[in-house]
Specification:
This protein is α/β, with parallel strands linked by helices. The chain folds into 5 domains: 4-83, no CATH class; 92-315 and 364-380, Tandem AAA-ATPase domain (Rossmann fold, 3-Layer(aba) Sandwich); 317-361, no CATH class; 391-400 and 466-654, 3-Layer(aba) Sandwich (Rossmann fold), CATH 3.40.50; 406-464, no CATH class. The strands form 5 sheets. A 7-stranded parallel beta sheet has the order 7-8-6-9-10-5-14, with helices on both faces. The protein has a 6-stranded parallel beta sheet with strand order 15-22-21-18-20-19, with helices on both faces. It has a 4-stranded antiparallel beta sheet with strand order 1-2-4-3.
Length: 659
Amino acid sequence: MGSPASIPTLGEKHVGSTPLLNPLEGLLDNCVLEDARTRPGFYRLVACPPGRERDLAQIPGVQYLRNVRPGEAQGWYVPRNVVEAGRYPHRIGQWQLPSTRDRESIAGSIRSSIRPSEHQLRAMSFLLSIGPEREGGILAGDPGLGKTLIALCAAHEIVGEAGPVLVCGPLAARQVWVGEQADALLHLGIRVQALETNDYQKYLAEHRIPSEPRGWYFIHYNVLESWAPWVFGYLKPTIVIFDEIHLLSNPDTTFWRSSRRVSRGGHVKLRFGLTGTPIPKTRMDLAAQLLIVQPSQWSTNYRDSVHEFGVRYAGGHREALTFSEDGEEDHRDRDRDRDRGNLQSLDSSGDDATRMVWIFEGQTHTDELVARLAGGYLRFTKEEVDLELPDLCRHVVELSRESLDLADYYRAMSGENLPARKSTGGTTLIDPQTGAQITQQGTLEKKPDAAQLVQLTQLVSALDHAKEKPALDLVLSLTETFQHIVLLTWRIDAADALHAGLSVQVPAGWKVFGPVNGTQAWRGPGKKEAEARRYAEAEKSIFVGTRDSCGVAINDLRLTQALVLTSLHWNPANNIQIEGRGHRQGNPFQEFHVYLLVARGTVDDKFLEKLQRKAEEAHALSEADVEGITFAQALLEGDERGHAEGLELTLQLLRGLEL
């Protein structure tokens, strides 16, 4: 028993010399806490000044427990990341290198094939500092900085080749764990076995599984729910690694629920989350990830926890919107609703449709969140690490609307392709380019935001189609300068058309690969990776695909000199993730060029606004997270907003739609 000041601090082995300011420190003054040994992740509040419980109760994760376990006392329980907030470094350069002896133990077995860099050793030090009492952490490094190798070595140092270790991730990451890291795995004595079928009993009958629970296994998120009985009943992993954990940002998905269930297993001692995109949309996405790697410290009831996190750390409150017969919105504030559990869309009743939405406004406790994340969330970027990466050169290729065939785009603006439903009335807009009248459908009676989102998707899709010819001409011109080019589109049919056009028009000696477009033909294990490998091995080659199919885990695209993107994504992290396929360790070229096709005065301008705001959101949580800001600035440089009429036409259609 003792005060927070008497809780032992970590030694020099793991902690740097620059602590964080802790906004919560004064809140715990004169409080007496004891380590809740039977409840990992918590301290029990033994005594505190009168009324201090009310202040502590405002912090997400602090809870009063009445139904306690045998040997426990009821009372207030405070998460460890509250008590220890600010005591750990939040920058990778502040994590000291392991001692010489530990470094040899960590890296000696793989030194003959892969020499860990300094930043990888520091990141291993971060993972090794996470004990069972702190439950887990998120390693959020930019794409291409070797997070897989870091997690492999750290987990091997803790449990050895016997495991048991479970790796969960998207199907696209399977090849990374099972195939691409084979050299490092061989020297570590590890063999990761992929479990892929939904029928786990049939799979076990056909494959040899050790009689004792041991080994390393990979299960992709699609089938994790099916394998949960085997994970709990047989494997009982000590460590669970969640690769691309940013995909687990929605608590209402089966992926998230099955991952949360596995994470909360009593046998799991440590949880590592790996991601290059820690904040896909907003801080609310980070809340869902933290509930996976630190399942107790943000509240045992995940719905309450998400609500509390949103109110305190994302500056939001939740509302229910009911759309009535006349299309009017009936707002009902749900902050005080004690049944704070239902973040899912509510069922429609009769002709009314009700759903839950988040409204973001007001001040956030950013400093407090950063302090709580220290020691459990490490964000590091390419700018922070000493690596020989190619220089990143971004080029914005501005396309005038006059040079594009926008017939489909204007049809999408009119809304004629939207599902036919009763409308609340329409408006007439004037196209500034042609002078023609465009009749916009009125707001649809049910779920207008969803209808607008459909229309936004149609606009982006139509614009992507209009950019096919400029993209084709650009890639053909780049063949005079580069030998390895990647072209990614938004639409599947755009990728198909560009692949067909390039196959006919490329100069002699060039090979065109793809189109890797996410269709059934490319969904088999290793198919996309094999095509990328053939692209990398060719002397002069072009790889064609879609953004969604090629954005993660295809590491053979690193042998690329130029990347052409026909469409932007509204989140800078998504664009950076795609850039990371080529701008990463292992790229032998001195420069890596990215060409962004932007049509001013169209929906692309809407994305520019979102890119800037999302980049600032990520930077607020980590000073190192500057890549999104530089990406947005590269797009905004030279943008004099000379297309105001076209932009306003687009914004009239999309006004109020929050991405």
